[in-house]
Write a structure and sequence with these properties.
With about 70 residues, this protein is mainly α. The protein is about 55% helix and about 0% strand.
């Protein structure tokens, strides 16, 4: 049922109606997070294709001394 409601909300063209409904249903944050996640994923997919080569250690001209410090 929630999926149908969300689909109807997405079809709404009036921004103030959309925000009011989302606020009322308390799903505004979850939809916004999902939109950000999808946007970020889409951007990464455009930046790095399936045939993108991995970078070997020898290809790195100037290593970043701070890389992986947080995981140490």
């Amino acid at each position: 049922a929630q999926a149908k409601i969300i689909e109807k909300i997405r079809q709404t063209e009036e921004e103030w109606v959309l925000r009011s409904i989302l606020r009322l249903l308390d799903i505004e944050d979850s939809l916004e997070k999902e939109e950000w996640r999808q946007g970020a994923s889409s951007s990464l997919n455009r930046a790095y294709g399936e045939n993108e080569p991995d970078y070997e250690q020898l290809m790195i001209k100037e290593p970043n001394p701070d890389y992986n410090k947080r995981n140490a």
